[in-house]
Amino acid sequence: MTRLTLTQGDITRESADALVNAANSALLGGGGVDGAIHRRGGPAILEECRRLRASRFGGGLPTGRAVATTAGELNARWVIHTVGPVWSATEDRSGLLASCHRECLRVADELGARTVAFPAISTGVYGWPLDDAARIAVETVRDTPTAVEEIRFVLFDDRAYAAFARRIG
Description:
Blueprint: E1 3-8, E2 18-23, H1 32-41, H2 43-54, E3 66-70, E4 78-83, H3 94-111, E5 115-118, H4 130-143, E6 150-155, H5 158-168
Parallel strand pairs: 1-6, 2-4, 2-5, 5-6
Antiparallel strand pairs: 3-4
Helix pairs in contact: 3-4, 4-5
């Protein structure tokens, strides 16, 4: 059975088999979690992302999909990059946010990862309301069959931690 845990802090400081990166479709770094992972992980992550762009993902990684690279200098074996949806008040994109979590677990299983650390995907500049993102994330990982032994949500601040804590119970 998969164990769900929470911690508050910086995902780039976590130790896990795989760290999830809330990436943008370009896979070339950016702001928020994406920029932090690229900065702390070093150039090896960017080099692999460039190779992915030159081969399988010439148009960028589609929203809701996931792909793995090395973790570079991070305390992990892999980074699993996923592109979360931008929140919309007029269009239900919750299926795409759920897909991010399912796809990350699928990739983790392919890699043989036993511990996976997730940030609060899409809740930064993509504007997804924290309570709803927490609901979707927790329900999706609970409902997704996986060999991953521990799924850890690494939340940056008190508000995010509280939103996920309400869902995990």
